[in-house]
Amino acid sequence: MAPRWPGRLSSLAPWVAALLLALGVERALALPEICTQCPGSVQNLSEVALYCKQTSELMLHARCCLNQKGTILGLDLQNCSLKDPGPDFPQAHTAVIIDLQANPLKGDLANTFRGFTQLQTLVLPQDVTCPGGINAWNTVTSYVDNQTCQGQRNLCNSTGDPEMCPENGSCLPVGPGLLQCVCADGFHGYKCVRQGSFSLLMFFGILGSTTLSISILLWGTQRRKAKTS
């Protein structure tokens, strides 16, 4: 009697569909490494959880609060025994709120938050200074077990120094207490004094000519040595 293959295949179809669906869901929920750097999940009463639950479009996954595109808007790494936030921390540069309390953090955190221009609430251990100092935040509040930095200031608007950037440059905030000067369109070089776009054609032309001249010189030197010997 011939085997009934069509019947068997039809019975396997639901299992195959379920497997493909599970793989698709797992791929869709692939989290940035920073979200799973510390075991566990966001605590229900934490600042990150409260922020995330305010909007139905936001979701809590592991230690992160994500929007529907998977962008990190909140990060809760409290009580993770961290001496520093780690190499994956820049993945959370889009975060609006970050909680790092109850960690033995060491050193200056100023450059750790370079690029975190959206950050508005940062919860730190009580003995750790807000990055950029008190002038980089609207409010710095100390509690028994943590310190909260709220309202990141744009130091470009608050320094009051018109000569901070050159005449043809503009100030750009790049994180708490951090800023840089960017040349205006059409200017480049030291203090943005050179006008016009940087000519790559001229640069590579000079580089090519110099390389060719040196190559010919070396070739001629080697040729004379060969004739002498």
UniProtKB/TrEMBL annotation:
Keywords: Disulfide bond, EGF-like domain, Membrane, Signal, Transmembrane, Transmembrane helix
Protein name, entry field: All-trans retinoic acid induced differentiation factor
Spans through the membrane: 198-219
Listed GO biological process terms: negative regulation of osteoblast proliferation; negative regulation of protein catabolic process; positive regulation of bone mineralization; positive regulation of osteoblast differentiation; regulation of gene expression; xenobiotic transmembrane transport
Species for this entry: Prolemur simus (Greater bamboo lemur)
Domain EGF-like: 152-193
Family annotation (InterPro entries): ATRAID (IPR042350), EGF (IPR000742)
Disulfide bond sites: 183-192
Single GO MF annotation: xenobiotic transmembrane transporter activity
Any GO CC annotation of this UniProt entry: lysosomal membrane
First and last residue of the signal peptide: 1-30
